[in-house]
């Protein structure tokens, strides 16, 4: 069995350094790092190539994390408004209105989970700058949208 880690026909060092005629590759870190060279965030197309793109990407991550808190706030407001609206209806109409509201609440719940898992994937770049941006977005999002929410987290992910 050959365990040589040299460069053999397309295998070998893919450290992300430029080679003639090749695009720099995304670095895949599985350990915490502050390095931003060839950082890709979730998608190959979201490739940080300069200081400006790093700053823009960190701002985008911050806004995305804030958006998650906004979505949670919208979901809470919808649920509260629908509960009041259904309770104000005649008894015979409440069951069907409750069922329709439950379908919309389920869609909002699914969207929140998708959003949370995407933020988790962003966090799992293991890049300290990106992790700070996600946490900063959670902080600012909670400041903007969490006035009526406990600071205790009830979601398993993110």
UniProtKB/TrEMBL annotation:
<feature type="transmembrane region" description="Helical">
    <location>
        <begin position="129"/>
        <end position="145"/>
    </location>
</feature>
<keyword id="KW-0187">Copper transport</keyword>
<dbReference type="InterPro" id="IPR007274">
    <property type="entry name" value="Cop_transporter"/>
</dbReference>
<dbReference type="GO" id="GO:0005375">
    <property type="term" value="F:copper ion transmembrane transporter activity"/>
</dbReference>
<keyword id="KW-0186">Copper</keyword>
<keyword id="KW-0812">Transmembrane</keyword>
<dbReference type="GO" id="GO:0016020">
    <property type="term" value="C:membrane"/>
</dbReference>
<keyword id="KW-0813">Transport</keyword>
<protein>
    <recommendedName>
        <fullName>Copper transport protein</fullName>
    </recommendedName>
</protein>
<comment type="similarity">
    <text>Belongs to the copper transporter (Ctr) (TC 1.A.56) family. SLC31A subfamily.</text>
</comment>
<keyword id="KW-1133">Transmembrane helix</keyword>
<feature type="transmembrane region" description="Helical">
    <location>
        <begin position="106"/>
        <end position="123"/>
    </location>
</feature>
<feature type="transmembrane region" description="Helical">
    <location>
        <begin position="52"/>
        <end position="71"/>
    </location>
</feature>
<keyword id="KW-0472">Membrane</keyword>
<dbReference type="Pfam" id="PF04145">
    <property type="entry name" value="Ctr"/>
</dbReference>
<keyword id="KW-0406">Ion transport</keyword>
